[in-house]
Amino acid sequence: MGRLYSEALPRLQNLFPVNHQFKWQYWSPPVDMVESTNGPARLMRLINVARSMKTPELTAMLPLLFYLGAQLSVDELLDGAPRVDGTIERLQPHDARICINGRASLVSANSFATRCFRPRTQSLIPGCSTQYECYTALATMVSDALKEDFFASSDPLRDLTVWFEKRNLRWHLCKPCAEHILKNHRDARTAIWVGLPTILCLDNEPNSGV
Ligand SMILES: [Zn+2]
């Protein structure tokens, strides 16, 4: 078990980085753990293993594991998810509750993180020489975004740079305003990343170590 653990750990730490200095803005969530057929069972297994082994390394991954857990459906969280062999992996009721409650908190965190995209003059750089055009461009872009679950998403760590740049090819915010908005979004996501244990109510857990 010791050798297996030390072999698996670097790979897991790459998937679920815990170091706040890690360049997490380049981190992509392992979406297959949410979207593939057996992904949810693998995610629940990791949470269950981290809970039972209680090693500092695995315990430190819990915020990101629960972040992904909060993306699962309530049915999966309550009834479990199928493993490759057809049996069912389940979370402990307390952990399922963390994911279910966490979802609402993450939607609220996303609403905070995406404030920088809201069409208001504070979203633009002070003294922008094309303020009216930039304001109109942002308003149009965001009205498109409203159809995409943009502000109500439970995935606030999602990197929206490509999404934004693609749309800005059409709507043309000036470069300083575009950079300002993306920087504010990165900063807001950093705050969420650092605050995940609090957002998911993990920092008061006994022996959680997070
Ligand atoms: Zn501008």
Structure description:
By secondary structure, this protein is an all-alpha fold. It has 2 domains: 2-111, no CATH class; 113-194, no CATH class. It is built from 9 helices and 2 strands. It has helices at residues 2-15, 32-35, 39-53, 56-69, 74-79, 93-113, 131-145, 161-171, 175-199, and strands at residues 81-82, 88-89. The protein has a two-stranded antiparallel sheet. Strand 1 (81-82) and strand 2 form a beta hairpin. Helix 3 runs antiparallel to helix 4 (56-69) and helix 4 packs across helix 6 (93-113). The relative contact order is 0.13. The model has no long low-confidence stretch (mean pLDDT 88). Zinc ion binds at residues 124-125, 128, 130, 134, 173-174, 177.
Annotate the secondary structure layout.
Blueprint: H1 2-15, H2 32-35, H3 39-53, H4 56-69, H5 74-79, E1 81-82, E2 88-89, H6 93-113, H7 131-145, H8 161-171, H9 175-199
Antiparallel strand pairs: 1-2
Helix pairs in contact: 3-4, 4-6, 6-9, 7-8
From the structure above, extract its key features:
binds zinc ion; 2 domains; 210 residues; elongated; 60% helix; mainly alpha
The value of Rg in angstroms is: 19 Å
Give me the side-by-side strand order of the main sheet: 1-2
**Biggest pleated-sheet summary:** 2 strands, antiparallel
How many β-strands, per DSSP? 2
**Spans of at least 5 consecutive residues with low confidence:** none
Number of helices: 9
Q: What's the overall average pLDDT, rounded?
A: 88
* Percent of residues in beta strands: under 5%
Counting structural domains, the number is 2
Distinct small molecules bound, one entry per kind: zinc ion
- Indicate the structural class: mainly alpha
Distance between the ends: 24 Å
Anisotropy-based shape: elongated
Instruction: Report the order of strands and helices.
Output: HHHHHEEHHHH
